Amino acid sequence: MAHKVEKTFRFVIVGGGIAGVTCVEQLSSQIPSAEVALITAGPHIKAVTNYKQVSKVLEEFDVEERPSSVLEEKFPNLTVIHSAVKSLHTQSHSVETADGRVFGYEKLCLCSGGRPKLLTQENPYVLGIRDTDSAQEFQKRLSKAKRIVVVGNGGIALELVYEVEGCEVIWAVKDKAIGNTFFDAGAAQFLIPSLEADKPERAAPCKRPRYTTEEPAAGASQTFTADRNSRGRNSGPTEPGSALGPDWHEGIALRGAEQVSRRVSVEYQCEVEKIFTSEELLDSQQQTLRPENVGSWPVYIQLTNGKTFGCDFVVSATGVVPNTEPFLHGNNFARADDGGLRVDDHMMTSELDVYAAGDVCTACWEHSPLWQQMRLWTQARQMGWYAGRCMAAHVLSEPIELDFCFELFSHITKFFNYKVVLLGKFNGQGLGPDHELLVRCTKGREYVKVVLSGGRMVGAVLIGETDLEETFENLILNQMDLTPYGEELLNPNIDIEDYFD
Ligand code: FAD
């Protein structure tokens, strides 16, 4: 290595997102005398605020961007270094930063997050949304846009199509239903009317306990329009850095150039075939455009269902790629199929004394049958916290067991202005055909789905103010045989809490 080690820390954490900051907090409070360094690319760090343990595993919190001095004031032995790590030397236990400094470590935790998986690299008409910077770029471009195409079916796409107004949105999803990462077709059907409604709305209760789901055929499209005039707030200046979280659009006016409010058309079961400019379109003989798409759009997108749309730009919301790049060269990290650094049940990578947490890692221990990894805020916090505990336990030669939070998958969020709680194998993940579903749905108010396997509850989706999360969490955790209760389990006239007390 060219440069001399400037200082060796007992613990070095890379990344000032939720995982990294939580890891720092955990280590600094557990071993206050230890010298800790947080090396992060951005000038701000993410802090968890208003943390609330809702039940045994469900947690809720807000995330704020803060200057790193807040952390340094709280923990006198913490040094924050604002520079990106450009290389890692696991043999000599040191990292080199972009500004040419070298720091040694006894134990290192990589929490560098992920970056958007873009449909194509370096196409100025294809945007990804990851951090405050990219969200502001999106806002700027949207303010002049008449039509955008959103590709992807995860949380970001869901939020985006709901929030954007004053601009036509073509939403291309590869599945039969919207929000496939989080929901099934029934839940999607429940949410779809929100795309037509004004927002924010509090739906009037409607006594319609049954619903039908018609899955759109491949290549089918659905259009929803809403007449809305509400505007978001303007954003203040912010810095680049870590991934945004649930309320990323709060404070950013997601408004296009048109007077119309929301107009969303969903193109189901299709992916992107090709993206090209108007010149390339003219050169190509095969392109057949519908009349409404002819015009001078700067970019055109051809979908695998044969349709081609002109638009102002394309938003690629197709997931994230773990940010492992700077750490790989010269080292021997085992990586998972999704590109993440493989970690064991102590958050340790395959390299000695290197741990990883959050979006950058892939949990490769034998999972509890009720847990799966999803690259979410909650898990970034839980992993950062647990990685900190493991690192401390290892230097103190104390035993440590996998934390209880990895027993049961749980997530609270908001989609289309509804509270959403996901528990366990909420979509029957990995269960094969060997499971049963019970559903209760009141249009505009609530959607409750329970996943049963062998008569025991293994997962649930709760949309709306159902107040069922704690009871269902208990039923999942205690694996009680629910066969005797049958469909009564979801009978709205039974107070289920009393039932199982
Ligand atoms: P990040 O928050 O990405 O932090 C990574 C940190 O590492 C950053 O500080 C970065 O500057 C730093 N870094 C990167 N490379 C280097 C380097 N080489 N050297 C030094 N520092 C480096 N999750 C939810 O639970 N609910 C949601 O509703 C939700 N919505 C989202 C909406 C958007 C638009 C996005 C992008 C994500 C959303 N997520 C949501 C996901 C959630 O934000 C992430 O899972 C979570 O923030 C990951 O935390 P992390 O600490 O692992 O990584």
Automatic annotation (TrEMBL):
Keywords annotated in UniProt: FAD, Flavoprotein, Oxidoreductase
Ranges where the NADH-rubredoxin oxidoreductase C-terminal domain occurs: 413-479
GO MF annotation list: oxidoreductase activity
Region Disordered: start-end pairs: 201-248
SUPFAM superfamilies (alphabetical): FAD/NAD(P)-binding domain (SSF51905), NAD(P)-binding Rossmann-fold domains (SSF51735)
Signal peptide location: none
Boundaries of every FAD/NAD(P)-binding domain copy: 10-164, 301-384
Polar residues composition bias: residue spans: 220-237
Top-level taxon of the source organism: Eukaryota
InterPro entries in alphabetical order: FAD-bd_OxRdtase (IPR050260), FAD/NAD-bd_sf (IPR036188), FAD/NAD-binding_dom (IPR023753), FAD/NAD-linked_Rdtase_dimer_sf (IPR016156), NAD(P)-bd_dom_sf (IPR036291), Rubredoxin_C (IPR041575)
Cofactor: FAD
Assigned protein family: Belongs to the class-I pyridine nucleotide-disulfide oxidoreductase family. PYROXD1 subfamily.
Chain's role: Probable FAD-dependent oxidoreductase; involved in the cellular oxidative stress response. Required for normal sarcomere structure and muscle fiber integrity.
Name assigned to this protein: Pyridine nucleotide-disulfide oxidoreductase domain-containing protein 1
Organism: Seriola dumerili
